[in-house]
Amino acid sequence: MNENKLSILSGSLLWLGAAISIAEILTGTLLAPLGFGWGLLAIIAGHLIGGILFYFVGLIGAKSRVSAMGSVRFSFGRYGSVFFSVLNVLQLVGWTAVMIISGAKALGSVAEGHSAIFNNLFWCVVIGVLIVLWILAGLKNLNKLNNIAVLALFALCLVLGFLVFKGGSSAGITGTMTFGMALELAVAMPISWLPMISDYTQNADKPVGFTAASTVCYFAGSCFMYVIGLGAAIFAGSPDVVMILKGAGLGAAAIIIVILATVTTTFLDVYSAGQSILNICPGLNEKLVGIAICILGTVIAIFTPIERYQDFLYLIGSVFVPMAAILLTDYFILGKRDTNKKIDILNTLLWVAGFVLYRLFLKIDTVMGSTVPVVALVVLFSLCIKAVGAYRIKFKAKRQL
């Protein structure tokens, strides 16, 4: 898409809309065994950690005027960028399916008089068609429509928040959840956008302001969605926020929330999937690629039971947390800007080590989660490798003298 520059207001509402989703509410419900106080702390702390990475990764694209996967070339070379583009497309197809099936099941619970199978099929198709229309409209042309949709969503979510918390009495919660695992689930959502944020910041008219506003709006919106999910599970006695709205006589509002939230968020997924595929095959038509991703995600949503996606979130962190740590170290500390290299072997091996470390920290289950220690270790290793390389060059030069 040859889109014009995006304003700070457009970016703010774009990312606020991305944060308002059924998936984020459902993830918030998983934190309920911690109780409201500890759950809220995990939500805020996790989003702060993820938001910092979100901002700085987005700033690379904003300053360099390159897409998310284009910026990966700074650290991993052309082949490395293709590798992460493939992984990003796979996660985005998965996210597209998760969002569509979550929305379809929520809408199916509002509709009556039809079988669950019919409801799922019907609503998956409806949501898929609406996303296709969003793609055809294009990122820039959607500004006004997206702004209206996001503001309407925010107003409806305020009503939902009031309904969730008006009781104020805690219901019996079953299940277990440690603070470290809850923290990582809160980090996971902003982390899932790391391989996409620069697809939008590259079009910013004011790079720093746009990236900062996008980060703040996503942080606020995502925290709010998590808190609604947490509150629904603890205080409303049911994690099904759609049924809460329906019970309050707001069935139509529930349908609007689910449809708009699903379409506005999933559009970003399929758009970025198209950007990643173009990084692999530059000659393809961007909108047609996005439509193909949407159709594939819709088909998967119809035929695959993918409602439980906690492990999916952790897998995303395993892949993209060490990638982001290496990219940030190279760009902001070491000043690497080489996009012509075919592949950076050292950084690739460092990413493999970071992936393994992330999985190990998940098993150890520290109070700091996995992201913080992995980022710290990967940055440290990266700087040590750079220092050793510089020492070897200096030592070799002395020997030649």
UniProtKB/TrEMBL annotation:
Source species: Anaerocolumna jejuensis DSM 15929
InterPro entries with a match to the protein in the record: CodB, Pur-cyt_permease, Thia_CytX
UniProt entry keywords in alphabetical sequence: Membrane, Transmembrane, Transmembrane helix
The protein's name: Putative hydroxymethylpyrimidine transporter CytX
A GO MF term: cytosine transmembrane transporter activity
Main location per the UniProt record: membrane
Subcellular location: Membrane
Pfam families for this protein: Transp_cyt_pur
Transmembrane in keyword set: yes
UniProt record similarity statement: Belongs to the purine-cytosine permease (2.A.39) family.
Any one annotated GO CC term: plasma membrane
The keyword Transmembrane appears for this protein: yes
Transmembrane segments: 39-61, 82-104, 116-136, 148-165, 171-194, 215-236, 248-268, 288-306, 312-333, 345-362, 374-393
Membrane topology: Multi-pass membrane protein
